[in-house]
Amino acid sequence: MSDGSFFEVDGSFGEGGGQILRTTITLSSILNKPVKVKNIRAKRNNPGLRPQHVAAVRVLADMCGAEVENLNIGESWVTFKPGEKPEPSLKFDIGTAGSTTLLMMATIPAASLNGVGCDLELIGGTDVKWSPTLDYFRYVALPAYRLVGIDCTVDVVRRGYYPQGGGIVKVQTKPSKKLTSINTVSKEPLPPSAISICSNLPRSVAERQMSSALNYLFEQDISWSDMKINVEDAVSPGSSIVLYSVGDEGPFLGADSIGERGKPAEKVGKQVSQNFMKEYSSGAPIDMHMGDILVTPLFLAEGESKFRVSTVTQHMMTDLHVASILTGRGYKLEEHKDGTATVTIGSE
After folding, report:
1. Distances (CA, A) of 256 to 311, 321, 334
2. Which domains does the chain have, with CATH numbers?
3. Mean pLDDT in runs of 10 for the chain (348 residues)?
């Protein structure tokens, strides 16, 4: 339904979280379609806009010169009217440990299709809960983006952990004339690689994370390809580890885990391996998080796309619905007995 000149989206649909808002505003800026999102995060314990959601809308507005109304913490609705002034360079401080990777998921497709690209510097959290870690995004999401036709590089200047944030990430996205469809339903898994990071902590923390992760893989008779252990700059202490199995045309499989106060490094390492093995052993070439991340660009790609995902998440179902109604393109979801599902995007 539309409200005057605005296409109206109900933010309480599906899982009713912030993902509906981010996806809607991203597509609005790309399609040049004014939108009103109501009932924002209606199903959350603290409904309405939170700082990280305000940040996502604000940076997208700055990228295209959009007019925005009611963009305040706690509000249940917002309007977004895209402008026609793409900004080629921006610096944006989330102001908290809010996730820089969630902002990248919103901004990179928009920057790719705005005609000029964008050099974006983001300040916030790089490795925080409820979002992909920076290394998952760099080593799993970016190769998948390249397959779709999005040319982007991500460099970390400084890590940012909860609660202080302060991470600095530089994102360079080049303009794309068009995005291309994919057919990724069957790919042989590749030996996984691993990257373990710690900041303002002894190097032994990252080493213990890695050792625990690799020991678990060894117990599962899985050999690995490459491993890196780094100590990197940050404002506050923190750690993370990612395991990934990625090829140029797939698979795109990964999992990550984040260190926390009181959580032994060995537990962090075992956790990432357990999560990775669920993806690796599923037989699908797309992991549960990449299934979600790919939805927006594939609805904008030419032709029909098809991929098989390890697990159908509520986030992905929400994104499929929102992208379908905003683009006017259809999709099909075929769930298989083994728990995987084949997604077809682009049927008219």
Report:
1. 16, 27, 27
2. 1-85 (3.30.110)
3. 76 87 96 96 90 94 97 97 94 92 97 96 96 98 98 98 96 96 95 98 98 97 96 97 97 98 97 98 97 97 97 94 96 96 86
- The neighbour count for residue 203, using CB atoms within 10 Å, is 12
| Cβ contacts of 179 within 8 Å, gap of 6 or more | 112, 113, 148, 149, 150, 297, 298, 300, 301, 302
pLDDT, position 15: 81
Note the pLDDT of residue 43: 85
Give the Cα-Cα-Cα angle 179, 21, 254 (nearest 5 degrees): 60
In the three-class reduction of DSSP (H, G, I as helix; E, B as strand; rest coil), residue 17 is classed as coil
Q: Which two tokens stand for residue 197?
A: 């990071």
Set 289, 315, 321, 336: catalytic member: 315
Angle at Cα 104 formed by Cα 103 and Cα 108, nearest 5°? Answer: 125
Q: What is the per-residue pLDDT for 348?
A: 55
Give residues with Cβ within 8 angstroms of 177, minimum separation 6: none
| Pair 134, 85: CB distance under 8 Å | no
> Residue 334 pairs with which residues in a beta bridge?
342
CB 77 within 8 A of CB 36: yes
Burial annotation 276-301 (CB, 10 A radius, 16+ → b, else e): bbbbbebbbbbbbbbbbbbbbbbbbb
- Residues in the chain, how many? 348
Report d(CA 43, CA 187) in Å as an integer: 37
- CB of 193 closer than 8 Å to CB of 224: yes
The whole-number pLDDT of residue 100 equals 97
Active site residue 321: no
Cα separation, 171 vs 160, in Å, equals: 15
